[in-house]
């Protein structure tokens, strides 16, 4: 009886461990005193008393179709969510608004934004992603991300 060759790729295990660790870190409370101008979105948000998202917004990242994609949970179901990706210097790289939808694997409303940022790229986080739930006026914690930069 022979042995089966073992895969040398640790990518699936690293991805699961990274996503799990990021989700756990994202469950921490949002930063105190954060305002919409922290990420560069307009300050006009509406406070809604019904169907508020549970506390503990969180974000995670993954690669989809060769691009960086940001996902998150615990947003207000059916509410508008602003997601921004910025360099550590504060310069905005990508942003967009999405509607939080139901997803059986994500608590609360799930929000997903596919960026135009190439991925994967070299290790090292030179930026971060952050999301704002307009319904609750709540910011997610910052998620460190690698933003690919071309050197020509």
Quick structural overview:
The protein is mainly β and 152 residues long.
Describe this structure in words.
By secondary structure, this protein is mostly beta strands. It is 11% helix and 39% strand. It has 1 helix and 9 strands. A hairpin with a 4-residue loop joins strand 7 and strand 8. The longest helix is centred in the N-terminal third of the chain and has 16 residues. The chain starts with 10 loop residues before the first helix and ends in a 7-residue tail after the last strand.
Alpha carbon gyration radius = 17 Å
Amino- and carboxy-terminal Cα gap: 53 Å
The biggest beta sheet is recorded as:
5 strands, antiparallel
| Mean pLDDT level | 77
Indicate the overall shape.
globular
Task: Tell me the strand percentage band.
Answer: 35-45%
Give the % helix.
10-25%
- Helical region count? 1
Low-confidence stretches: 10-50
Q: Class by helix and strand content?
A: mainly beta
Listing every helix as H and every strand as E from the N terminus to the C terminus, the arrangement reads HEEEEEEEEE
Using DSSP, what is the number of strands? 9
């Amino acid at each position: 009886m022979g042995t089966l060759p073992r895969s040398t790729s640790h990518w699936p295990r690293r991805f699961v461990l990274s996503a799990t660790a990021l989700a756990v870190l994202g469950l921490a409370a949002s930063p105190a005193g954060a305002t919409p101008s922290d990420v560069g979105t307009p300050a006009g948000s509406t406070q809604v008393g019904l169907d508020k998202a549970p506390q503990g917004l969180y974000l995670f990242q993954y690669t989809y179709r060769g691009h960086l994609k940001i996902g998150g949970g615990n947003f207000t179901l059916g509410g508008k969510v602003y997601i921004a990706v910025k360099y550590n210097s504060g310069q905005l790289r990508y942003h967009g608004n999405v509607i939080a939808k139901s997803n059986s694997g994500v608590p609360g409303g799930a929000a997903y934004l596919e960026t135009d940022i190439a991925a994967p790229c070299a290790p090292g986080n030179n930026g971060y992603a952050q999301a704002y739930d307009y319904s609750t006026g709540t910011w997610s914690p910052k998620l460190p991300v690698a933003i690919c930069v071309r050197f020509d």
